[in-house]
Amino acid sequence: MTAQIFGTLPDGRQVTRVTLQGHGLTASIITLGASLQDLRIDGTEHPLVLGYPTLEPYLTEGVYFGAIVGRYANRIAAGEARIAGRSYQLDRNEQGRTMLHGGADGTGQRNWTIADHGPDHVSLVDHLPDGHMGFPGAMLVRAFYRLMPGPVLRISVLATASDTTLCNFAPHSYFNLDGSDDLSGHLLHIAAQTYLPVDDHLIPVGAPAPVQGSHLDFREPTRLADRLHGPLIDHNLCIGAQNLGSPVPVATLQAANLSMQIETTMPGLQVYAGDHIRPGATGLAGRPYHRFAGIALETQFWPDSPHHPDYPLAELRRGDVYRHITNLRFRPAAGS
Questions:
Q1: Buried b (16+ CB within 10 A) or exposed e, 17-37
Q2: List of E strands, 90-218
Q3: Do 132 and 149 meet the contact criterion of CB atoms below 8 Å apart?
Q4: What is the dihedral angle through the alpha carbons of 65, 68, 74, 75, rounded to the nearest 10 degrees?
Q5: Does this model's pTM top 0.85?
Q6: 3-class SS of residue 224
Q7: What pLDDT score does 240 carry?
Q8: Torsion on CA atoms 90, 201, 203, 52, rounded to nearest 10
Q9: Catalytic residues
Q10: 130 by DSSP, 3-state: which?
Q11: Which range of residues forms the domain containing residue 214?
Q12: 157-178: b or e for each residue (b if 16 or more CB lie within 10 Å)?
């Protein structure tokens, strides 16, 4: 494990980068957003995630790249929520209309503190005060990154709160397993029978709908080249009820020589194919990123759950512990 100063924020605070090695993986995590800044596997020169070699892009075009977003990942319509019988106005940081990823000062944009580290693991903590971004309850959140045999990168999030509040964290890396300019050569397989249809502002409009016959049907391995230029891919796929025990396999992303299986305890997977990405700052591979350069596969509770009582409950009560585990398991691609 190595640690070094990654950069300095406009207010003078330093951002630290920790690099872990073990079991054939090398992962770098920065304190800004508790973000996975780089991920490599032995024998492959290119990175497996989108990221930047310097801090500045993480403050602009690279916001959320690799971050742990919350305290409520994804969107809440009108930034309004009813929690424990009371109504709250939350921060509306997306076009003045919607709360996105916990508000303008959500955890994906905050500078966390390193609590513990070793050669193959690191834990980071953040403290959100009562009323932060409009949410009730002071919250303590801890994120863990650990390299494990497999090889596996395990990302865990634990949280407690002083009062009943909403709690929904998500790792927000963009993956690209072959180092190419876009995802055309990747196959995606997701074990989901249903998804959440959305309106023009990406807010769910009601009950889950069957993926069958839609552009979100990934029940069989599907080449992304056949989907990228069709309807927008930025939806929650319903992968089952929350499993409070061990993570279960829910999705596989595959390139020519490498496969990544996602295992999680969460009931939703937001799939976003990087439609907004445009050339700007130089990325980890030494060139700017283009549209569809990486795909976000965000394990989470379902979006806008405060307005849908039939969705899995993204509520954390005082005295309870929020637990979220996501494993990224790597292996050679079938036939490689």
A1: bbbbbbbebebbbbbbbbbbb
A2: 98-100, 113-118, 121-128, 139-148, 152-161, 165-166, 170-172, 174-175, 187-190, 194-195, 209-210
A3: no
A4: -100
A5: yes
A6: helix
A7: 78
A8: -80
A9: 172, 298
A10: coil
A11: 2-332
A12: bbbbbeebbbbbbbbbbbbbbb
Separation of alpha carbons 302 and 269, rounded Å: 8
User: Which pair of tokens denotes residue 208?
Assistant: 């889950």
Q: What pLDDT was estimated at residue 2? A: 87
In this structure, what CATH number is given to the domain that contains residue 174? 2.70.98.10
- Digit-coded pLDDT (tens) for 72-106: 999 999 999 999 999 999 999 999 999 999 999 99
Confidence class of residue 334 from pLDDT cuts 50, 70 and 90?
confident
* Count of domains forming the chain: 1
Q: Tokens 């919250």 appear where?
A: 139
- Please state, in angstroms and as integers, the Cα–Cα distance from residue 264 to each residue in 12, 67, 188, 322, following that order: 37, 17, 16, 14
Match 């080449």 to its residue by tokens: 223
- Average the pLDDT over each of 45-54, 161-170, 215-224, 234-243 and give the range with the smallest value: 234-243
Q: How much is the pLDDT for 319?
A: 94
pLDDT at 336: 61
Residue 229 three-state SS: coil
